[in-house]
Amino acid sequence: MWKRLSQFTHKARWRIHSFALGSTMALGVASLGQGCTAGGA
Amino acid sequence: MSLYPQNYRTLRPHWLRRIAFASLGVVLLYWPFALLTRALLWATGTPLLPDAHRICMRMPIQWLAQPWMYGTMIQQPLYLGSVLVLPAIALFVGPLFCGWLCPAGGITEYLSRLVPTRFQIDLSGKVNPVPLRYGFTGGMMIASFVGANVCCSFCNFTYTQNLISSIFGDFTGIAYWASFMIAGFVLWFFVLGLFTRGGRGWCNFLCPAGALQGLSHSLGRWLRIGRSVQIDQSLCRNCKTCVSTCPTWAISNKEGQTQINVHGCNVCMDCAKGCEHQAIAYKANKREPTHVETTEPVHA
Fold first, then answer.
1. Rounded Cα–Cα distance for residues B121 and B193 (Å)
2. Which residues of B touch A7 (CB under 8 A)?
3. N- to C-terminal Cα distance for chain B?
4. What values do phi and psi take at B290, rounded to 5?
5. Which of B54, B57, B132 is the best residue to mutate to test the A interface, defined by the most A CB atoms within 10 Å of its own CB?
């Protein structure tokens, strides 16, 4: 049971950290971007 | 060959088929051909230049967080492609666009096979990129909600269009590249492309269109509708060929069990074609006793 719990928390940590890292990257990229050529934007 | 030393001869005809489809993607979506785009622009009466920007895969996903842009999407239905059409297709048959038609993902994947593996970062079976891709997509939408955007200057679809345009003598796009675009291009084409095993690092970590389709594909799997790539555990011999073959790092082998992460699978079928034991197949999502698949990421 502890092993399963440990695996679960390990996976959850990885997912939460990765999600946060991805979001931070997107916000960083959004602040550095140089405009869009798509119509309507 | 570098990427699949064990089975590249078996896979060669399959790769040629996929390269043919990626070329079809260029003809359908990219200037100067853009046959699909031209047809849709003509059908909707929109007088715009037919290039990769017209069926934008990125901005409409951001616009989902901007209700004031919904009117634009309805007025120009081409923008509904990445938020409605592709996820709807992925719900039933998976992200076939990503695995077969997308030239931006295809170009780095196919060229990466020419790079010796000793120069490549190998993350297959080691890292689950799915949460980061969802995080990037979510962050992109948050950014757009507060007025910023992750736009063409960080889009591999644009880089590919600009490269193809320059091949056909139009250097306008390339001339527009500034430092940020050059950095994005290097990240997409070299770091996460040619020098990453599978050549699809950008797709795996940073593609919002792929994230939306992966989410839809996993929903179809969960609802037991449509089709997906599945492993028959009774036939699997744990040879791990599929783990090293998968360009999206969606397959992992842990504790003697090979599993496919349906959120990351782009239905390219390399694993199925390369499996010597015929343990992998693309089939209807039904619960069968011999199959043990998961929608849970199994890495890390």
1. 10
2. none
3. 29
4. -85, -10
5. B132
Lookup result for tokens 């009466």: B45
Kindly report the length of chain A.
Answer: 41
**Which tokens belong to B219?**
């929903």
Chain A residue numbers with beta carbons less than 8 Å from the beta carbon of B131 are 14-16, 18-19, 22
* Rounded CA separation B106/B120 (Å): 17
Specify whether the CB–CB gap between B187 and A29 falls below 8 A: no
B252 and B261 in contact (C-beta within 8 Å)?
yes
Task: Write out pLDDT tens, residues A1-35.
Answer: 888 888 888 889 989 999 999 999 999 988 886 56
B154-182: pLDDT as tens digits: 999 999 999 999 999 999 889 888 888 89
Q: What six digits make up the tokens of B233?
A: 């555990």
User: Other CB atoms closer than 10 Å to residue B253's CB: what's the count?
Assistant: 16
Paired tokens of B187: 């990240």
Cα–Cα distance measured from residue B132 to residue B125, given in angstroms and rounded to the nearest whole number: 16
8 Å CB contact of A18 and B131: yes
Summarize the confidence of residues B232-256 as an average pLDDT. 92
Q: What is the pLDDT of residue B294?
A: 54
Query: B111-122: per-residue pLDDT in tens?
Result: 999 999 899 999
Name the nearest CA neighbour of B162 among B137, B140, B189.
B189
